[in-house]
From TrEMBL:
One family name in Pfam for this protein: Peptidase_M23
Domain (M23ase beta-sheet core) ranges: 240-334
Source taxon at top rank: Bacteria
UniProt xrefs under PANTHER family: L-ALA--D-GLU ENDOPEPTIDASE (PTHR21666:SF289), PEPTIDASE-RELATED (PTHR21666)
CDD domains assigned to the protein according to its UniProt record, in alphabetical order: M23_peptidase
Coiled coil: 58-120
InterPro entries: Cell_wall_metabolism_enzyme, Dup_hybrid_motif, M23ase_b-sheet_dom
UniProt key word Coiled coil: yes
Residues that span the membrane, as ranges: 30-54
Keywords: Coiled coil, Membrane, Signal, Transmembrane, Transmembrane helix
Organism expressing this protein natively: Candidatus Carbonibacillus altaicus
Single GO molecular function: metalloendopeptidase activity
Protein name: Metalloendopeptidase
Length: 351
């Protein structure tokens, strides 16, 4: 109660001017003053709270802004670094593509070179030739097998190099390793290329030797007499038959048993129309009792080429070809060049 009475007490404040004038008086109660004071303090407190909140918010915003700016700078630096790395990788990829393109071209060139080597080997081993009019008997199997084996080794080596080159192009390996492997392959191909002319020359020399070896039957027909001693049908005495007789109808084609040069073509006594061919030093063949001669002295003939027609000229009992092989001036058994033993198909001697 006392406090309330104290608050309800009224107070007067007079304002007296220094010079004569109106005196102003302000009357108020202590409660009013307390209310004004409390209201003022409340306003000040509200203002302080608002100011402090705004200041705190501003500092928080500035910190966040600074952090964001720092992060943006870091991201820019990262982006620039990634951009530089991307450019570097792009350049490296371009360089790698160029190197792989170069390697691919070198591999393609290497395969072309190996293919060319193979074609040259095939051309040396299998030259084109006309098919004979009849299937010849016999062949120089040993020599052919030797050449075939040699060529097969070279072919296998070529295929190995090409296969390795092709496999290398598919491997996921470093450029340096691929270059090293390709360099080794190119070195092998160059080595093979350097040796190829010598090899081809050797093959051609062997082939020429084979072509000059009388290894095919010179005419179709029955074998009626073989090399060796027999009773001569004219003298009825034992006599050495120095060749093989092939009996067939008059006009049957006669071919050269091997490549060579015609050294005789004409009539030769009891042999009738005869052709002699020199194949190589010390080796010649003769074809007797012909009805027609299609070559002349000095002609070069190929194995299987027609040289005349079968007949019965000279001392002969019927149409046949008397075929002889001479080595170093003496007659030898032609059967050895035709693959082995020759069987007489009809027991009728032809001379």
């Amino acid at each position: 109660m006392r406090f309330l009475r104290l608050l309800s007490r009224r107070w007067t404040i007079q304002c007296v001017p220094e010079h004569p004038g109106t005196v102003r008086a302000v009357r108020f109660s202590l409660g009013f003053m307390a209310s004004v004071l409390i209201f003022g303090m409340a306003l000040w407190l509200i203002f302080f709270i608002l100011w402090f909140g705004a200041h705190t918010l501003k500092e928080t915003y500035q910190k966040e802004l600074h952090a964001a700016q720092t992060e943006i700078k870091q991201q820019k630096a990262t982006i620039q670094a990634l951009s530089g790395e991307s450019e570097r990788l792009r350049q490296e990829n371009a360089a790698l593509r160029n190197e792989y393109a170069d390697l691919a071209k070198r591999l393609s060139d290497l395969e072309d070179k190996l293919r060319d080597h193979q074609e040259k080997i095939d051309a040396a081993m299998h030259p084109r030739a006309e098919k004979p009019a009849f299937e010849p008997k016999g062949s120089a199997q040993g020599s052919v097998q030797e050449v075939t084996t040699t060529v097969q080794k070279a072919t296998d080596r070529t295929k190995m190099i090409a296969s390795t080159a092709h496999a290398s192009s598919l491997k996921t390996v470093s450029i340096a390793a691929l270059k090293s492997e390709l360099f080794a392959l190119e070195a092998k191909a160059s080595e093979q290329e350097a040796a190829l002319p010598v090899f081809i020359e050797k093959v051609e020399r062997i082939r020429d030797d084979l072509e000059r070896t009388p290894s095919i039957q010179p005419a179709s027909g029955r074998i009626t007499s073989v090399f060796g001693y027999r009773i001569d049908p004219f003298t009825h005495t034992k006599h050495l038959h120095e060749g093989i007789d092939f009996a067939n109808v008059r006009g049957t084609k006669v071919v050269a048993a091997a490549r060579g040069e015609v050294i005789f073509a004409g009539y030769n006594g009891s042999y009738g129309l005869q052709i002699a061919i020199q194949h190589k030093p010390g080796l010649k063949t003769t074809y007797s009792h012909l009805s027609k001669i299609d070559v002349k002295v000095g002609d070069n003939v190929e194995k299987g080429e027609r040289i005349g027609l079968m007949g019965s000229t000279g001392r002969s009992t019927g149409s046949h070809l008397h075929y002889e092989v001479h080595v170093d001036g003496r007659s030898v058994d032609p059967a050895a060049y035709l693959g082995g033993t020759i069987r007489v198909e009809e027991a009728l001697y032809q001379d």
